[in-house]
Amino acid sequence: MTTVLRSNNNYNQSNHLIILSYQNQRTWFASLLTETEQKIVQKAMDKGTKQLILPQLERFIIIELIEAVDNRPDLEEKTRCIAAKTVASLRKHHLEEAVLLDYTKDNLSASYAEGIVLANYQFLKYFKEKDTLKSSFHTLHLLTQFIPSNEVALLNTLFEGVCAARDLVNEPLSYLTAVQLSEEIKRLGKAANFSVNVLDKAAIEALKMGGLLAVNKGSLDPPTFSILEWKPAQTVNKKPIVLVGKGVVYDTGGLSLKPTANSMDFMKCDMAGAAGVIGAMYAVAKAALPVHLICLVPSTDNRPGLNAYAPGDVVTMYSGSTVEVLNTDAEGRMLLADALHYAKQYDPELVIDMATLTGSAAHALGSQGAVFMGTASHQTKKALSRAGIKTQERLVEFPLWKEYAEQLKSDVADLKNLGGPMAGAITAGKFLEHFTAYDWLHIDMAGPAYLHHEDAYRTKGGTGYGVQLIYHFLLDYTT
Ligand code: BES
Ligand code: MN
Ligand code: ZN
């Protein structure tokens, strides 16, 4: 994470200030501005200016004027986007630190801080001139009069989780193999105090996880199956909640090879579901939420190697069901199915899987939201949707009507891994449903996982989608 939030009681004459204020709100004028400056700001307000930068003797005062919006989620989102614009100014003026003064009286410090931290995120690991490219800005000070210090600590933790997820998605296959992903999980486990158990290829073979092993057949690198657990002394749930993340570290499509341009070229993002649940686990454990949480991450790359699984193959899955493979590019469901079956042993209260599963989901909503479906209660679905609106990681429910299952009938096996040309996100969900036997939600985040152009505080590349969604869902669950 490039930016840290610091809680402070006070500030001094030489601190750069960022003022959040509504248009025409003058409550703070007298305490901070000279008469002349007040006139300048008032004039700008009259003209409808949104941002003003006042250089004072020792410091800058950056004034961000928000238009009031009457619903809370929109107001918070607007605030995050304004913060993303501030980041450009902070970098331009080579500022390193600033103090936020939130005069809106609407407790927008957290949203503003989020916009700053996430817009100032950078992935510079592979640049020779990292130091010159690095953003000057590194610390935003939040005053206890606007937001309590324990909340600031939790925000840092949560944004660390988001940035960790972005880093994982932005890492190319040349570094992030399945084994390396499990190493990154162990590193994060040490930092956040959750336990990690990694099943290697021999263990996966011993368990006969046929779906994961089939996808791995074309690869030179072994698969991994990581099991993350957070179980504090006090928990609100007797039975665990299980998260499952698709960890395809690279998806060539396999023998059903993808075209390179606009398709395979960004398929390092195909472990974004895994990154999302890992980042959420990190935040939950570091914040010590009283919830028993388990994460499963089946991982491999999908390659057309010499021994690659082939269209027409019949695979015996971990559950014992057989699958006729008709398209090796429908690989995510193969390994998710094994993980979903593995989850049964925990007698879970709820299982949520996240995956960049189908182009169909991305086509439906673009990058503005994810598709979800599942067998969990209406109440649970409502709670997830609410978390989506709060975090701007929005969700739309798709149906799992039984008629869609017809498309998965095979002539030679229990089911096939490919549906018809329509409703691809749903037939993928229907396939997964076959391997569940508990309350379950499936999130297809193929659209919002990865951006080809920056979008305010969502930087280009991995977005970290899902971390805040799951964190807030679980926070809500525990209170
Ligand atoms: N990883 C892809 C889905 C994807 C598409 C992720 C776009 C991110 C952005 C997945 O494995 C895939 O290839 N799905 C196929 C399934 C089809 C062969 C049934 C698809 O959606 O085309
Ligand atoms: Mn694929
Ligand atoms: Zn894939």
Automatic annotation (TrEMBL):
List the molecular function annotations (GO) for this entry. manganese ion binding; metalloaminopeptidase activity
The family database entries (Gene3D superfamilies) matched by this protein are listed as: Leucine Aminopeptidase, subunit E, domain 1 (3.40.220.10), Zn peptidases (3.40.630.10)
Q: Which domain of life is it from?
A: Bacteria
GO CC terms in record? cytoplasm
Q: What is its EC number?
A: 3.4.11.1
Q: Single Gene Ontology BP term?
A: proteolysis
PANTHER family per record: CYTOSOL AMINOPEPTIDASE (PTHR11963:SF23), LEUCINE AMINOPEPTIDASE-RELATED (PTHR11963)
Name it.
Cytosol aminopeptidase PepA (EC)
Q: What is the lineage of its organism?
A: Bacteria, Pseudomonadati, Bacteroidota, Saprospiria, Saprospirales
